[in-house]
Design brief:
The protein is mostly helical. The chain contains seven helices and no strands. It has a single domain, classed as Cytochrome c-like domain (Cytochrome Bc1 Complex, Chain D, domain 2).
């Protein structure tokens, strides 16, 4: 785990680790950094946007244009740039199954990039508008980044 992320959410005790195929335990501490970001940047907390075909289509296009080069077309961390990155991009299907992966956390991660956790992921807060970031979050939540 990344030390900064462990500091932010707490590390699970060995006894709290899930069985294979089980869900990860809830973080021990609150996500203060995420909440502070949402509050100080006047971001509307929570993703209350309806997952319409238009919104999902926009989110998928934005993901393909901005994220797939590292995370891969389906978000498995296997994009063309993945092997050159250390740490490698996460498999988003795994990340999305974790309790920490609430919509506000996903928004914060996309907006702030990997600097808070020591990765090379760029921050998108200056290149994408808030509604565009929420569209990417909605596409991630759909579990279908290619529009199958």
């Amino acid at each position: 785990m990344y030390p900064e992320l462990v500091d932010a959410i707490g590390a699970p005790e060995a006894d709290d680790l899930p069985e294979p195929g089980g869900r990860a335990p809830a973080p021990a501490a609150g996500l203060h950094e995420v909440q502070d970001f949402v509050n100080t940047n006047d971001i509307e907390a929570g993703n209350d946007r309806l997952a319409t075909p238009a919104l999902l289509g926009e989110g998928r296009k934005l993901f393909a244009a901005n994220c797939a080069v590292c995370h891969g077309a389906e978000g498995h961390g296997d994009g063309p740039m993945a092997k050159s990155l250390n740490p490698p991009p996460v498999d988003l299907s795994v990340t999305l199954s974790m309790p920490v992966a609430q919509d506000d956390f996903l928004y914060w991660t996309i907006a702030e990039g990997g600097a808070p956790v020591g990765s090379a992921m760029p921050a998108f807060k200056t290149t994408l508008k808030p509604d565009q970031i929420w569209a990417v979050v909605s596409a991630l939540r759909s579990g279908d980044l290619k529009g199958k």
